[in-house]
């Protein structure tokens, strides 16, 4: 059984890792004024935050066109017996629904679309697990079984420097964002039922980071094998330092460092920080 694994750019899986695991990626877009750029292809993280500073217009984002999904699925159908397509949370983007609609238009193969209910490298963890299983010849049903099991242990908490980006993009309810910015809190955010909601309102960045680390410790101190990722919005040194600190404290956890790329960075703003993990 040969199963193709597809994801979208917001998993931010480095290109070498994608190539190594035969992962196919469909990009979302960042729009500055009238210009649309496919992230990870036409605009990369190295230039994005600089571009935001230099541009008068704040960027917006869009999901891939359905035609792009159809084209990719039809091409893969010539080489693979089935497709598992893993995407960012359906509560924050229409990408998942686009993939489902495209899958229904393709008759040549079975397309199984999976809603990760999250994004960034935590979505990437789903993709890596799926790719490892596909390489072992596992069926789409077996792969989806494992992905659903992963949902039981995956956790992700993140914080932003400025809630107005999330509010402007409509990915957090206005009332919550207004209260948040008025009080100048640094709420810890997380996903509930595919959507972003505040987990706890915390006054300072330092305390918010500590709260996230305490939440991580609750799981990591159980000493079971885990994968975890520190994700930063253009704060690589801070992310690297945190990863090193965690690696020393939790040698049984496999840590990654990743970033909020252009599309997610548009909605979170510079300076966001997140930690995600799951039990292997
Ligand atoms: C689109 O235009 O379809 C893309 C919309 C992306 C919204 C992103 C909202 C922030 C997601 C934060 C993920 C944090 C994971 C730890």
From TrEMBL:
Superkingdom per UniProt: Bacteria
UniProt-listed InterPro entries: DegV, DegV_C, DegV_domain_contain
UniProt entry keywords in alphabetical sequence: Lipid-binding
Gene: degV
SUPFAM superfamilies reported in the protein's UniProt record: DAK1/DegV-like
Descriptive protein name: Protein DegV
Signal peptide start-end: none
Annotated Pfam families: DegV
Lineage start: Bacteria, Bacillati, Bacillota, Bacilli, Bacillales
Originating species: Sutcliffiella rhizosphaerae
């Amino acid at each position: 059984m040969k199963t193709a694994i597809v994801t979208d750019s917001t998993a931010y899986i480095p290109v070498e890792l994608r190539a190594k695991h035969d992962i196919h990626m469909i990009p979302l877009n960042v729009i500055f004024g009238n210009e649309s750029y496919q992230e990870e292809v036409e605009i990369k993280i190295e230039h994005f935050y600089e571009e935001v500073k230099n541009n008068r217009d704040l960027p917006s984002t869009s999901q891939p066109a359905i035609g792009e999904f159809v084209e990719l699925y039809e091409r893969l159908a010539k080489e693979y017996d089935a497709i598992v397509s893993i995407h960012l949370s359906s509560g924050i983007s229409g990408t998942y629904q686009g993939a489902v609609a495209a899958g229904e238009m393709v008759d040549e193969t079975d397309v199984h679309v999976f809603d990760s209910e999250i994004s960034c490298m935590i979505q990437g963890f789903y993709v890596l697990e799926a790719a490892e299983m596909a390489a072992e010849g596992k069926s789409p049903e077996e792969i989806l079984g494992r992905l659903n099991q992963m949902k039981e242990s995956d956790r992700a908490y993140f914080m932003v420097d400025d809630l107005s980006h999330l509010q402007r993009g409509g990915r957090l309810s206005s009332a919550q964002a207004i209260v948040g910015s008025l009080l100048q809190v640094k709420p810890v955010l997380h996903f509930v039922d595919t959507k972003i909601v505040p987990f706890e309102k915390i006054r300072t960045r330092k305390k918010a980071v500590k709260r996230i680390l305490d939440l991580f410790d609750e799981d990591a101190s159980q000493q079971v094998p885990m994968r975890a990722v520190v994700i930063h919005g253009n704060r690589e040194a801070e992310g690297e330092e945190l990863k090193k600190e965690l690696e020393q404290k939790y040698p049984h956890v496999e840590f990654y460092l990743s970033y909020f790329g252009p599309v997610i960075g548009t909605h979170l703003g510079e300076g966001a920080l997140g930690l995600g993990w799951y039990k292997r």
